[in-house]
Amino acid sequence: MLRIGFWTHLLIIINMVAMLAGGFWIGREGLAGLQSRVTGLERLVELRAVKMLEVTAYSPTERETDSTPYINASMQRVRAGTVAVSRDLWGEGWVFGKRVYIEGLGVYEIADLMHVRWKNRVDIFMPKTSWAREFGLQSKAVALLDL
Predict the structure, then answer these.
(1) How far apart are CA 125 and CA 145, in angstroms?
(2) Is 55 within 8 Å of 126 (Cβ atoms)?
(3) Residues spanned by the domain of 28
(4) 3-state class (DSSP) for residue 3
(5) DSSP conformation class of 13
(6) DSSP class of residue 47?
(7) What pLDDT digit, counting tens, does each position of 79-107 carry?
(8) How many structural domains comprise the chain?
(9) What's the rounded Cα separation, in Å, for the pair 25 and 15?
(10) CATH number reported for the structural domain that contains residue 44 in this entry
(11) Is 60 helix (H, G, I), strand (E, B) or coil?
(12) Helix %, strand %, coil % for the chain, to 5?
């Protein structure tokens, strides 16, 4: 049941992003073309782009980041809708500017890196420390989107 919900959300997000970019995901090939794209997407996602990861949250404090808590590793100001990834994921192509879909939470842009001690983890930026603490540690399916 988790898989059905995850795939449904992922396809909705992909369609929304494609429409915002000025394209139509279904295209001229109709439903048959849509089915082949969905099958291709499922293969891509199964082979490399979806992982079960620990998902945490962080806020802009020196205790949680470094001496410049309002500037992330991509040299941009921190903002809602971004995440930091562990360096093992960075080495697998989860780099700045790419987007990830986190099960049940939505799409985020990779804009920061986590400390080397963390592995297989995504850290969501939250503006308030209390929100980050309340979020806690969760295990979620996370998909790297090639959009």
Answers:
(1) 19
(2) no
(3) 2-145
(4) helix
(5) H
(6) I
(7) 888 999 999 999 888 999 999 999 989 99
(8) 1
(9) 6
(10) 2.40.40.10
(11) coil
(12) 35, 25, 40
